[in-house]
Design goal:
heterodimer, A: alpha/beta, Rossmann fold, 3 domains, 18 helices, globular, disordered N terminus, B: ABC transporter involved in vitamin B12 uptake, BtuC, two-stranded antiparallel sheet
């Protein structure tokens, strides 16, 4: 295939027009458009929740759009399943590359379309030879006989790319391909992208990092909240203009009004370091305060919070509660010192489905409802009844297993469980991720109420409106470090995005 | 609610046991005479004690395959001790049995807790190690009845209020662990760890340490049973209770203990053990080949698991409000 001529570049290889995707209660995509051109890179830009991954799933046949058309080489097409998309020459390389650790590189590259020899058996020699040829073509120094698990992440990406080439992919989707790569590996990836361009592949490049977008993309498309915002040639746009397009939104969510009356210092974290995940974390938290932690996925926020809560231990760092140095070696220490953590994945990490409501609620508070290791059931019921009443959780009996409750009530049980510990500091990790707008408002109102009662709240969130709407102060983390702390008028969408994405401190 | 659910499951099993007894009574009415039933219970007592320990281990999403080997090793040690020093007080013998069993159980628990080795691998390994150790200690020789002191052999058979001590120990174990599971923080932790280990971590429960305690309890009960077994049968050798760990696991599975952890009860384990015990004792008296016993036990396991799987499947997701409080 020859490098794309200018005339060919004007005609998209693949075009999405008016694509809509609706999930129960959420309109994930609303009439969005996207064009991919042969031999060119299109960067898809948007915040978390903008609809980027939904588009990827539609392109790879995992989701079916509810409206709109997909045009490939000028003809309308549909991708009813993943195989149809793959047959059409579309392949995606994900952040978490989907490959098989126990198979060799060659087997990974040719899984599902291995060359066949006699009796229909896999022709291993031919497969290894072909794999070596493809790997050579992308200048990847990887032995096709190596087991995948012995490779680093960068090499796994190369294998994924080799797999894409082995099925003659014409359209390559790269979903944050550099998120886990070192600087040198990123440079090599850029070189590879140039090679793919030269071969006339159309590339969709999804990234949060502006420097790389401006370095390798030819076109950009911006989504916001599932809507198409703009598209054009990368040479016609500035980073500032892109940030504006990403975040400039109409105020469509109303957050509870809160009086900013924060009390005395409750928590002070000094010099938290971890060998691989974060370093130099210092901050303070006050009574009645909501402190937002913003950053891109993988910025180290949850990792730091888990260490603060005693699940993992930092190499260094001092926690002061009410000014007194407090050593937290385990989650039990944290709970005993009034710190609780409501993790992101509440389904997996929240309720214990087989246990009754009251036992779920009292689990972190058993030290208060027992004496010498013996439970006092009357106290347990009293505690559970107290908090279910406060949260207006109606169930036939506190003996009902949580698995028999609706999702909303299960969430109430989890909240009741944490409140029943009478915490001073509550860490909420992505408190409204994946819940509908109505429930979000309820959670926000509840957070405001807790803060008003004097609870100190740390809110880890990747949703800018939520961070800005709820927080008194915002700490921005990037690559394991605190890169900014903003409050009051400094809290604008632009500052958060700039710091999180690492676009200089020009603003 | 969960209690009524479990009770319902136990009620089904209890019903099955009654049905089984009725079928046996048709062929041989003497089997259901109270004295014979007491004998069956006494004969099943070791299985009951071990099944309770195993149930706790399974609750925490682990499995202990070393119980029978632990029993055999502990039994050999106390038997040899008795031969060497016949005058030692019985309380000392029992303490050594429980202490050694506990230590062996703790070893399993430490491997799982501190080294993160899968429980099936750890206990498969220690099962072989324990058996091998018996051989090293005894040179493969038997300790026979005439070498054991009279007091050593008499204790499990001593009658109190019409029941042998062995039966009373099983009853005491049932009561003690019913209390521990329902009324202590440790008991609650066993359920929490098995029901949702991630949630347990955030609630401040140390998952590994809880599993360690489960193995410790299982080991302690295996050690106690080791003495009772050797004293009752008045013999100790390398292969006593060979393969008995599978009966123990089977009793738990029949008793509705979820192999995935988090669901189970002492009552279920006891009923599961009784079910197997009745089959084992009844088949010879109704002239059915003991080989059928294996098939019947196997069928009972599959039926029990299938019933549990059905119960789990029919629930589905609760979305309708009115489905939230079923009558």
């Amino acid at each position: 295939m020859q490098p794309a001529a200018t005339a060919a570049a004007m005609t998209p290889m693949l075009s999405l027009d008016g694509i809509t995707k609706v999930f129960p209660g959420v309109r994930a995509l609303s009439e969005v458009s996207l064009q991919l051109y042969p031999g060119q890179v299109t960067a898809l830009v948007g915040e978390n929740g903008a609809g980027k991954s939904t588009v990827v799933k539609i392109l790879t046949g995992i989701y079916q759009p509810d409206g709109g058309t997909i045009t490939l080489d000028g003809a309308a097409v549909t991708f009813p399943n993943a195989k149809a998309a793959a047959d059409a020459g579309i392949t995606a390389i994900h952040q978490e590359t989907v490959l098989f650790d126990e198979l060799t590189v060659a087997e990974n590259i040719f899984l599902g379309h291995a060359p066949r020899g006699r009796f229909g058996l896999i022709d291993t020699a031919e497969m290894v030879r072909k794999a070596a040829a493809i790997l050579h073509g992308i200048e990847a120094a990887i032995d096709p006989d190596t087991r995948l698990r012995d490779l680093g992440i960068a090499s796994k990406h190369l294998v994924a790319i080799a797999r894409a080439l082995s099925i003659d992919a014409r359209i390559v989707i790269m979903d944050e391909p550099t998120a886990a790569l070192s600087h040198k590996e990123i440079t090599e990836l850029y070189a590879l992208v140039e090679k793919l361009k030269a071969q006339g592949k159309a590339i969709l490049f999804i990234s949060h990092k502006f420097d790389e977008i401006f370095r390798i993309a030819d076109h950009y498309t911006v989504f916001r909240d599932g809507q198409f915002v703009g598209a054009g040639a990368i040479t016609d746009v500035t980073p500032d203009a892109l940030v504006q397009m990403m975040v400039g939104r109409a105020v469509d969510q109303i957050f509870p009004k809160r009086g900013h009356k924060t009390g005395r210092e409750v928590l002070k974290v000094v010099g938290y370091d971890h060998p691989t995940e974060f370093e130099g974390i210092n901050f303070t938290l006050h009574q009645g305060e909501i402190l937002g932690f913003y950053g891109l996925v993988g910025a180290g926020r949850s990792e730091f919070m888990q260490s603060l809560f005693g699940i993992t231990r930092p190499a260094k760092g001092v926690t002061r509660i009410d000014g007194a140095v407090t050593v937290i070696r385990s989650p039990a220490d944290a709970v005993a010192n009034g710190i609780v953590y409501v993790p992101e994945d509440r389904g997996r990490q929240g309720a214990i489905m087989a246990l009754p409501i009251f036992q779920n609620i009292t689990i972190p508070s058993l030290h208060r409802t027992s004496r010498h290791g013996f439970l006092r059931l009357a106290r347990e019921f009293e505690l559970a009844r107290d908090y279910t009443t406060r949260l207006d959780l109606r169930a036939a009996s506190l003996d009902t297993p949580v698995g028999n409750l609706s999702g909303g009530n299960q969430q109430k049980v989890v909240i009741a469980k944490w409140l029943a510990t009478q915490p001073r500091v509550i860490i909420l990790d992505e408190p409204t991720k994946g819940i509908d707008i109505g429930s979000k408002a309820a959670v926000h109102a509840f957070m405001a109420e807790l803060a008003a009662q004097g609870l100190a709240i740390i809110m880890v969130s990747s949703e800018i409106p939520e961070v800005l709407g709820m927080s008194d102060r915002v700490i921005v983390m990037r690559e394991g470090r605190i890169v900014a702390e903003v409050a009051g008028d400094g809290m604008t969408p632009e500052t958060l995005v700039r710091h999180a994405a690492g676009i200089g401190a020009a603003a | 609610m969960i209690k009524t659910f479990l009770r319902a499951r136990e009620a089904i099993l209890a019903g099955a046991i009654l049905l089984l007894l009725a079928l046996i009574a048709i062929r041989f009415a003497g089997f259901i005479a109270p004295a014979n039933l007491a004998n069956v219970f006494n004969d099943t007592a070791p299985l009951i004690i071990l099944a309770i320990g195993q149930m706790i281990v399974i609750l925490t999403r682990c499995i202990d395959l070393s119980v029978a080997a632990n029993l055999a090793l502990t039994g050999m040690v106390v038997a040899m001790m008795n031969v060497a020093a016949p005058g030692l007080p019985l309380i000392f013998t029992i303490t050594v049995a429980i202490g050694l069993g506990t230590t062996l159980g703790m070893f399993n628990g430490l491997m799982v807790w501190k080294l993160g080795i899968p429980p099936i691998v750890v206990t498969l390994g220690t099962m072989t190690i324990f058996r091998g150790t018996i051989f090293l200690l005894s040179d493969g020789k038997w300790v026979n009845s005439h070498e054991m002191s009279a007091a050593f052999k008499a204790f499990p058979r001593a009658m109190i209020l019409g029941l042998p001590v062995l039966s009373w120990i099983a009853i005491a174990t049932i009561l003690l662990f019913t209390l521990i599971l329902s009324r202590t923080t440790l008991g609650r932790a066993f359920f929490a760890v098995g029901g949702n280990p991630h949630a347990a971590v955030y609630a401040g429960i140390n998952v590994g340490r809880t599993q360690f305690w489960a193995f410790t309890i299982s080991g302690a009960l295996a050690g106690l049973t080791g003495y009772l077994w050797v004293a009752r049968y008045a013999v100790a050798y390398v292969d006593i209770a060979l393969g008995f760990e599978l009966d123990v696991v089977a009793a738990c599975v029949i008793g509705g203990i979820a192999i995935a952890g988090g669901v189970g009860s002492v009552g279920g384990a006891v009923l599961g053990a009784l079910f197997l015990g009745i089959i084992k004792n009844a088949l010879p008296v109704v002239n059915i080949s003991p080989f059928w016993q294996l098939s019947i036990s196997g069928a009972a396991i599959i039926i029990a698991v299938a019933l549990n799987a059905r119960a789990a499947r029919t629930k589905g997701r609760i979305i309708l409000k009115r489905a939230e409080h079923p009558a």
